[in-house]
């Protein structure tokens, strides 16, 4: 997880922009997407997460609205299991503990808020499309890998996250378990996005703007 945090807080070299621009340039990873449908009755929507399969199932009754791969917590920082409810939604959320230090005049540093240099402005690491189900735990956009890799949150691909955010509302129930019955059916042959390794570095001057929240495709529904 240390490497992932370094990505989020890293400064990109000037030549990076030629191959990895502010709007994407990550080839197959950026092209990944999943089909989704809007519910007839949002009150009947529920979410089931399989930590073993690293899959999330958004259901209206027995009808799948969205089936998406996710990244979950690693063994040392596992995603909590149990029954929860989405109680907070923030499209433009930023972390409160780690991020960037704005020195002014286009100069930035990075690190933990507790170490913020005097005279700088703290700007948290972006966590787009945040949907909290337990204090300090939530669904949000983030780089996805083939193996569990997070601090316990559930990461979504940036093209799929806005669909999940629109379908799921405050009050939607969430069940997180080692496995789900849907693993053998709905989740059986769902392709994952390419493993985002090595993690790309975007310039801090980009990460501190709201542009980072709009990297995704315009969401469409079936």
TrEMBL record:
EC number: 2.3.2.-
Keywords: Acyltransferase, Cell shape, Cell wall biogenesis/degradation, Peptidoglycan synthesis, Signal, Transferase
Keyword Transferase: yes
Biological or metabolic pathway of the protein: Cell wall biogenesis; peptidoglycan biosynthesis
Domain L,D-TPase catalytic: 45-177
UniProt key word Acyltransferase: yes
Name the UniProt record assigns to this protein: L,D-transpeptidase
Enzyme class: transferase
Pfam family of the protein (one): YkuD
Region forming the signal peptide: 1-23
Naturally occurring in which organism (per UniProt): Rubritalea tangerina
One annotated GO molecular function: acyltransferase activity
Catalytic residues of the enzyme: 140 (proton donor/acceptor), 153 (nucleophile)
InterPro entries: LD-transpeptidase (IPR050979), LD_TPept_cat_dom (IPR005490), Transpep_catalytic_dom (IPR038063)
Family: Belongs to the YkuD family.
